[in-house]
């Protein structure tokens, strides 16, 4: 099939590359000329495992190409995927200006039947707005061209997007048109051979399904973080609680790991957007509001634990940070807990010495050059000469640690682990003061404050 993808960001690139990889003829269009030129040269603007090699393979095979010309893009495909950004507006609702701009371009240049596919995460009712905008442009042109609009939400996890696209559990399509069903079956046939994955439903149900899925997963994370805060105060170990409830098949182990909060391009904005949608129709979505509130509070816990360990005096301290991306296997730092931590440390007069396997360039892009931020080449350099260590992202290379060695590197043996990577007993045996999330005696340890930090770290102490 001839397919057009509007948008060459995360969703657009993964969608276009994967569809080209099964033999479709795909053109990706973007208004960012510099990005398109980089893509033509084989340079990928994002980090996603496996994407670069797959993209280059399909470019070389002639199945994937890039353009900045909307006329060329519209003329190319019967299927016109809209995969542009929907950033949060000032009130938290999804900003549809880019989606509607694409709709206008399609309406301006189409001269035969098109299936317009909302791939971006959009509020319920967006397909109607896209249909109305295209119809409005066609009317202004004085032409009559048949077209359909459907919803085909993406369910891609950053760091595992290719696996999710090619082996996903379901392919949701919202439409009431048999013509659309036929073409979407043809589009996704290579991914639908083992068993039936296509789920056809009403357009508005498909739009709500995407938001509901992300809100459910975000709810599980915030719930577990809420329980971890209780465990910390009650002297219970949240890891034992996690295993206890995860063994129940009705709950399962997915998304119940306590930590320092969720971030990324989806959960924060989608929970906000769904809550805003509820507000616009006069419904108070109390649970969604609570999920967002808990997550914001959880991101502050790393700084609070560190501050308590030093009796609130972090001025002049150098804090090592392992992990800057919001999760492993991505360079995405949108709403990352590391950003909340670093900005609080700078406000307190501390210096950050950080390392992340993939997001160093993104960190420089966001914060630029500053005296209180040093980005280093590896995790060893990050802790050298630092006063304490904070772990924000659970990259695999952080999962093994010589605790005795770490104690010799830090001026004070303080470790704040936002991802519960290590056993508290092993860390304490090495002489480290280990502050995790919901690990029983963490709160009691925090209350000891800087006096005990200094006492245990003075020359000649154990």
Give descriptors for this structure:
13% strand, six-stranded parallel beta sheet, 462 residues, alpha/beta, 20 helices
Structure explained in plain terms:
It is a single chain. This protein has 462 residues and is an alpha/beta fold. Helices cover 46% and strands 13% of the residues. The chain has helices at residues 10-21, 33-40, 51-60, 70-76, 97-109, 126-141, 161-167, 178-188, 203-234, 238-246, 267-280, 286-299, 301-309, 337-347, 360-367, 379-383, 403-409, 424-429, 442-446, 449-457; strands spanning 2-6, 25-29, 64-67, 79-82, 114-118, 147-151, 171-174, 198-201, 318-322, 351-355, 373-375, 388-391, 414-417, 433-435. The strands form three sheets. Strands 3-2-1-4-5-6 form a six-stranded parallel sheet, with helices on both faces. It has a six-stranded parallel sheet with strand order 11-10-9-12-13-14. A two-stranded parallel sheet has the order 7-8. Helix 5 (97-109) links the parallel strand 4 (79-82) and strand 5 (114-118). The longest helix has 32 residues, at 203-234. The radius of gyration is 25 Å and the shape is elongated. Mean pLDDT is 93; it is low at 453-462.
């Amino acid at each position: 099939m001839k397919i057009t993808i509007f948008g060459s960001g995360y969703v657009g690139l993964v969608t276009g590359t994967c569809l080209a990889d099964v033999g479709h003829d795909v053109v990706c269009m973007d208004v960012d000329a510099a990005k398109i030129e980089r893509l033509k040269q084989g340079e990928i603007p994002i980090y996603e495992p496996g994407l670069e090699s797959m993209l280059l393979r399909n470019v070389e095979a002639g199945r994937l190409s890039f353009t900045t010309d909307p006329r060329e893009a519209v003329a190319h495909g019967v299927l016109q995927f809209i995969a542009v950004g929907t950033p949060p507006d000032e009130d938290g609702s999804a900003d549809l200006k880019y989606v509607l701009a694409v709709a206008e371009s399609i309406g301006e240049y189409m001269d035969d039947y098109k299936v317009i596919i909302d791939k971006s995460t959009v509020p319920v009712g967006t397909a109607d707005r896209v249909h109305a905008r295209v119809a409005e442009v066609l009317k202004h042109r004085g032409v009559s061209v048949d077209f359909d609009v459907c919803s085909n939400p993406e369910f891609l996890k950053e760091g595992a997007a290719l696996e999710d696209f090619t082996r996903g559990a379901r392919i949701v399509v919202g439409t009431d048109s048999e013509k659309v069903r036929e073409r979407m079956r043809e589009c996704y046939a290579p991914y639908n051979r083992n068993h039936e994955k296509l789920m056809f439903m009403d357009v508005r149900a498909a739009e709500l399904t995407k938001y509901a899925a992300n809100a459910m997963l975000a709810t599980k994370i915030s719930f577990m973080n809420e329980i971890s805060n209780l465990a910390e105060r009650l002297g219970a170990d949240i890891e034992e609680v996690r295993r206890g409830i995860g063994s129940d098949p009705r709950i399962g182990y997915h998304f119940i790991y306590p930590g320092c909060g969720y971030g990324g391009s989806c959960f924060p904005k989608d929970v906000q957007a769904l809550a805003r949608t509820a507000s616009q129709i006069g419904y108070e979505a109390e649970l969604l509001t609570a999920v967002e509130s808990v997550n914001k509070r959880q991101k502050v816990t790393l700084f609070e634990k560190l501050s308590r360990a030093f009796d609130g005096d972090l001025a002049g301290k150098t804090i090592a940070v392992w992990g800057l991306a919001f999760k492993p296997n991505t360079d995405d730092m949108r709403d990352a807990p590391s950003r909340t931590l670093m900005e609080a440390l700078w406000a307190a007069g501390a210096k950050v010495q950080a390392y992340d396997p993939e997001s160093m360039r993104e960190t420089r892009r966001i914060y630029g050059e500053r005296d209180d931020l040093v980005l280093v080449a590896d995790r060893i350099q990050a802790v050298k000469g630092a006063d304490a260590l904070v772990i924000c992202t659970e990259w695999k290379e952080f999962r093994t640690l010589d605790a005795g060695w770490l104690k010799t590197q830090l001026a004070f043996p303080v470790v704040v682990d936002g991802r519960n990577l290590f056993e508290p007993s092993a860390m304490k045996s090495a002489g480290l003061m280990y502050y995790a999330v919901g690990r029983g005696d963490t709160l009691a340890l925090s209350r000891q404050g800087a006096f005990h930090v200094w006492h245990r770290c003075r020359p000649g102490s154990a």
